[in-house]
């Protein structure tokens, strides 16, 4: 038996041994979001709902700002039983190619489109998670991503030429920005502010909620509204730990995850207009990018996904078809 299996089983057993007492059954929920971020609001909403529903069966505690590690470290900690829940987003494309569909530029039009994709295709994403030892309790979001940098406004893909741009740890995001002409650099979110401040990188791409809460507006000159990718977030557990939770606890957590998704979508939509103002007020120059130019430049990424990922072409077609009602 692998050491990681032994450690995870032991950790889960220790948690479940005291499941009659909240102080004994502690569920640790880690995320990388800074105070004021959408991730923090999402995790705290799920925590509050879960604690109210579970009563003395368990107590959930949230740990933001990468206190439990980077996204990759938290994925490992889930399997080791050192954390029970995490809120990964783009990094899931490195777990399984199926999640790379959300790395395709402009493939998700809006949140209603995302709900249709979830309704029609969630079994496939859950299957991919299970194959890799995880369980998706529910979906939230990271949001629509935009580009900030200190070199120039980005209106068309050619403006990215030579820009050192931080990306999350996901192969498809790197390929996308290479195709656009940038110099993409995967980096943990917790390292981005300092890297921008010191000039190690020129820019980054994130939703307004992550940009503003991490105070990137303090170290960036330009914000270009590209909306190039919509990234869901995943309320994630290890499959082993999830399967060992009592059935009634799992049911309460699933109900809370669904409620949290509704909260997150509403909160994210409200933040979009509010936080753009916060970024502008900090002195950041804002421009609207030519999205048609970016969409045209994205065709090779779609072709590569269709060629390299088993069933990738069919998956692209299905997701695009589900966007027709938006």
TrEMBL record:
<dbReference type="InterPro" id="IPR018389">
    <property type="entry name" value="DctP_fam"/>
</dbReference>
<feature type="signal peptide">
    <location>
        <begin position="1"/>
        <end position="22"/>
    </location>
</feature>
<comment type="similarity">
    <text>Belongs to the bacterial solute-binding protein 7 family.</text>
</comment>
<dbReference type="Pfam" id="PF03480">
    <property type="entry name" value="DctP"/>
</dbReference>
<dbReference type="InterPro" id="IPR038404">
    <property type="entry name" value="TRAP_DctP_sf"/>
</dbReference>
<dbReference type="GO" id="GO:0055085">
    <property type="term" value="P:transmembrane transport"/>
</dbReference>
<dbReference type="InterPro" id="IPR004682">
    <property type="entry name" value="TRAP_DctP"/>
</dbReference>
<keyword id="KW-0675">Receptor</keyword>
<protein>
    <submittedName>
        <fullName>Tripartite ATP-independent transporter solute receptor, DctP family</fullName>
    </submittedName>
</protein>
<keyword id="KW-0813">Transport</keyword>
<keyword id="KW-0574">Periplasm</keyword>
<dbReference type="GO" id="GO:0030288">
    <property type="term" value="C:outer membrane-bounded periplasmic space"/>
</dbReference>
<keyword id="KW-0732">Signal</keyword>
């Amino acid at each position: 038996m692998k050491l990681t299996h032994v450690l995870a089983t032991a950790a889960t057993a220790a948690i479940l041994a005291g499941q009659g007492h909240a102080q004994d059954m502690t569920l640790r929920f880690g995320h990388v979001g800074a105070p004021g971020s959408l991730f923090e609001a999402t995790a705290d909403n799920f925590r509050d709902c879960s604690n109210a529903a579970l009563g003395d069966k368990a107590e959930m505690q949230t740990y933001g700002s990468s206190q439990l590690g980077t996204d990759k470290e938290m994925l490992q900690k889930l399997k080791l039983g050192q954390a029970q829940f995490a809120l990964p987003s783009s990094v899931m494309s490195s777990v399984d190619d199926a999640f790379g569909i959300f790395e395709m530029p402009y493939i998700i039009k809006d949140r209603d489109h995302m709900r249709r994709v979830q309704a029609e295709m969630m079994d496939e994403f859950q299957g991919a998670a299970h194959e890799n030892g995880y369980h998706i309790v529910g979906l939230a979001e990271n949001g629509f991503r935009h580009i900030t940098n200190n070199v120039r406004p980005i209106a068309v893909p050619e403006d990215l030429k030579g820009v050192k741009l931080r990306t999350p740890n996901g192969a498809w995001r790197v390929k996308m920005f290479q195709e656009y002409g940038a110099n993409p650099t995967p980096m943990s979110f917790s390292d981005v502010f300092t890297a921008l401040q010191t000039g190690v990188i020129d820019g980054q791409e994130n939703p307004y909620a992550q940009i503003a809460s991490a105070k990137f507006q303090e170290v960036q000159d330009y914000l270009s509204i590209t909306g190039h990718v919509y990234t869901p977030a995943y309320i994630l557990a290890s499959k082993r730990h999830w399967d060992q939770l009592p059935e009634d606890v799992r049911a309460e957590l699933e109900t809370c995850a669904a409620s949290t998704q509704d909260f997150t979508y509403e909160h994210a939509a409200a933040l979009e207009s509010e936080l753009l103002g916060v970024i502008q007020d900090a002195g950041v120059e804002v421009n609207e990018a030519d999205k048609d130019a970016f969409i045209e430049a994205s065709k090779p990424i779609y072709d590569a996904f269709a060629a390299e990922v088993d069933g990738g072409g069919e998956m692209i077609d299905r997701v695009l078809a589900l966007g027709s009602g938006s």
